[in-house]
Amino acid sequence: MSGSRRALPLLAVLCAALAAASASVGPSGVTPLTLLASNVEPQALLILAEIRLPRMLLGLLVGASLGLSGAALQGLLRNPLADPGLLGISGSAAFGAVVAFYFGLGAATALAVPLGGLAGAAVGMTILVTVAGRGASTLMLILAGLAVSSIAAAATALALNLSPNPFALAEIVFWLMGSLQDRSMDQALLALPFAVVGCGLLLSTARGLDALSLGEEAAETLGVSPTALRWRVVAGSALAVGGTVAVTGAVGFVGLVVPHLLRPLVGHRPGPLLAASAVGGAVLVLTADVLVRLVPAPQEIKLGVATALVGAPFFLHLVLRRRHEVTP
Amino acid sequence: MTVLRGAALTVAAGRRVILHDVDIELRPGCLTVLLGPNGAGKSTLVKTLAGLLTPSTGVVTLDEIPLAGMPRQRRARLIGYLPQQPCCAWALTVRQVAEIGRLPWDGRYMQNTGAVDGALAACELVGIADRHVSTLSGGEFMRAMLARVLAGEPACLLADEPTAGLDPLHQLRVMRLLRESASAGRAVLAVLHDLALADRFADEVVMLDGGRVAARGSGGDILTAETLRVVYGVEAVIGEIGGARVIQAIAPAGEAPKSTENLR
User: Fold this and answer.
1) A53-77 and A185-203 helices cross at what angle (nearest 10)?
2) Which chain A residues are Cβ-neighbours of B96 within 8 angstroms?
3) Does A216 touch chain B (CB under 8 A)?
4) A147 CB contacts (<8 Å, ≥6 apart)?
5) Which of A214, A223, A263 has its CB closest to that of B72?
6) Tell me, what's the ipTM?
7) How far apart are the C-alpha atoms of B135 and B91, rounded to whole Å?
8) B200: number of Cβ within 10 Å
9) Could you report the per-residue pLDDT of A85-98, keeping only the tens digit for each?
């Protein structure tokens, strides 16, 4: 109990430190402290306001959204292997963004790609809700999510297949890897309301998810509506993850790994895990994003690649540990 | 003092009718035991009384107020439900599970320790309150789940097979808990399979068969060889040993019991 109360403030401090680091690290050597100097160069101000700040803000938003959505989905499905990718949100957002690229809309306005991503996520979630039905069981939800993500992946592959020229292809592929690089303040501000509303919805499920630990029937007799809870988690995830991933591209494994790492720190309760995972997700994404800036490479390592490189072995570790639990 | 009443309950799953026109009344201070063979509709009746299933006809009322129109939260405060085969998804401690029982009451349920402590003490779990429920024995686990229900201080307690899979001592302890809970003024309903246990602890026995009430009354009145033959399809011996009534099924109905000598 006492440990679980300490976890959140500790994570918040860590998150603030990493946000500061995110605002300070870059090739130009400008840091927020530069602003304290007597004669601030307008260029330094520009770098901070137009490059570092949106990058930091997006890192916070996408990290919090993924961590929170992962924790909520794991609580809802009562399965530690659940992850936001399960519902096909990222997949359909990616497809929407790729369509925007494909028709060259990205060149017209910087917001075309994220808007395409948002539209894709909205279409994907509409299909999910229609297929799963209003009173959908958890199993139906997973199956419908699998169908949506498969269709989105196939359509994305088709778009790549038919890509008009190799430059467009490369641009699309790099975008799909997920990154916070070169995102404008406008793009960050586009994601902001979706992330805030989505995260709010997800955080409101804490009590319901606690009750759900004891099964759907017990939860219902504790005053929780399992159906309403399910849709709140789905809608919250769609808004938060769809809204942020539309701007950054898919960032994998954050939603899976973060709740897992933090669960013991909050006494394994799915409710308190939500807020902790939001902050923890932001910590992980900011850390990864600072690291990819520091790694000397001819081409910056994409954030999604970095998180997958760390996340996939961790996932393997989870699977192995689970195997040991199942087979005596 | 709350009376939970089901009047003329008919419940159907698709075309199959599971309960036909069942009347039941759970009164404060009274431990009602629901008996009946597998598939008689016991769990369906308990779920209907808990508000988990909606009857196609008939109505469940709490102090004359229909359950269907009642706000979820209020219903959750009044009716505690222990599911058949309760489960716990995460590595929660006994205390954390009991705390979940406070959910219907307030947002800061984790701070209300009085009711939780009381429930843990009543279920004799104080010494193992910090153990993870996954490490408990079957008897301890069931008591932890019961503590969760009691922590919510419901006026009515519905327990679906609370003694399933428990050794005789733990069965007795669980039944005593339910008995005490009724004596404290709750209306308690328990589904049981152990006829002697039902006979010993029940104020009233309701016996279901094929979705209908086959018999109701005190254990002494309705737990007879004749009823058990008709409802359960077994030949049973009923006798008294050391002042305790013993009820033992010994053979399927119609078959001559192989040997009853050593049961006498």
Assistant:
1) 30
2) 267-269
3) no
4) A88, A127, A131
5) A223
6) 0.89
7) 9
8) 16
9) 888 988 999 899 88
